[in-house]
Design brief:
The chain has about 250 residues and is of the alpha+beta class. The chain folds into 2 domains: about 100 residues, Immunoglobulin-like, CATH 2.60.40.10; about 120 residues, no CATH class. It is built from 5 helices and 13 strands. Strand 11 and strand 12 form a beta hairpin. Helix 4 packs antiparallel against helix 5.
Length: about 250
């Protein structure tokens, strides 16, 4: 063997000593995941209800044993290797979940360990829902205060200018106004306070055609004096324009 070939082999052994073994180990790993079927999950490590343990591993995997702490709760011998369990069957507190897999050639593989805190059903209200309600109440209070201050001290916008957040149409009075940055974001829209009727509603960004129709109603109401018959025509128009647009 010449010196150049020997140097190449030594280089590979020094810098890539376990390349083939590493690839084999990676293909033989067992990965455990937990998904919620029905119940409470996703709030830190706290879970309560029915969940599914699911394992992925090498192609020659023949069976998987599922464990909670040191207790085997079931075996699955078919793909996908999964098993459902209910937290109500265990004492409240922290539990370690893992799985052990068996392959065709007799290998025994251990999965990663997942630690979860099983909640007592009687304590869910005090430990989960009350903190969530408190946080939502605080966000709503801050959003309300921010929108009221903005309505009182914010600068007016020209008609048709709704800023980067766009405009909405109030579902109560059907008049347009600009969305606010401090509004409470919900899955179905944002909680906004209409500057015209002063009512709260969950709204979504309106289309240009809907805003155009609402602006036409705004002008018609201003001309007819429908919003406030005690004001003069000029005062009504001026107040409506000022109330309908605010800076973000």
């Amino acid at each position: 063997m010449n010196k150049s070939r020997l140097l190449v082999i030594l280089f590979l052994l020094i810098f890539f000593p376990g390349h083939s073994a590493l690839a084999q180990d990676e293909s033989a790993t067992l990965t455990l995941r937990i998904t919620r079927v029905i119940g409470i999950g996703g709030i830190g490590d706290n879970i309560q209800g029915t969940f599914s343990m699911r394992v992925s591993g090498p192609q020659d995997l023949t069976s998987v044993e599922f464990y909670i702490d040191e207790q085997m709760i079931g075996v699955d011998e078919q793909v996908p290797f999964a098993l459902q369990f209910s937290t109500t069957g265990f004492t409240p507190g922290k539990h370690n979940l893992h799985a052990v897999g068996n392959t065709n050639d007799g290998r025994v593989l251990s999965s990663n360990v997942i630690t979860r805190d099983f909640l007592d059903p009687d304590s869910i209200v005090s430990e989960v829902f009350l903190p969530i309600i408190g946080i939502l109440t605080l966000i709503l209070a801050l959003s309300t205060a921010g929108q009221m201050l903005r309505a009182k001290f914010g600068k007016s916008r020209p008609v048709g200018d709704y800023g980067s957040l766009g405009g909405v149409v109030c579902p109560r009075c059907q008049l347009p106004y600009a969305r606010t940055f401090l509004a409470l974001r919900l899955g179905i829209g944002t909680l906004e306070r209409c500057p015209h009727c002063r009512k709260w509603a969950i709204v979504r960004r309106a289309s240009p055609s809907a805003l155009e129709a609402a602006e036409a109603r705004l002008v018609q109401d201003a001309q007819a004096g429908a919003l406030n018959t005690d004001e003069s025509e000029g005062d009504r128009r001026r107040r409506m324009v000022e109330d309908s647009r605010f800076e973000d």
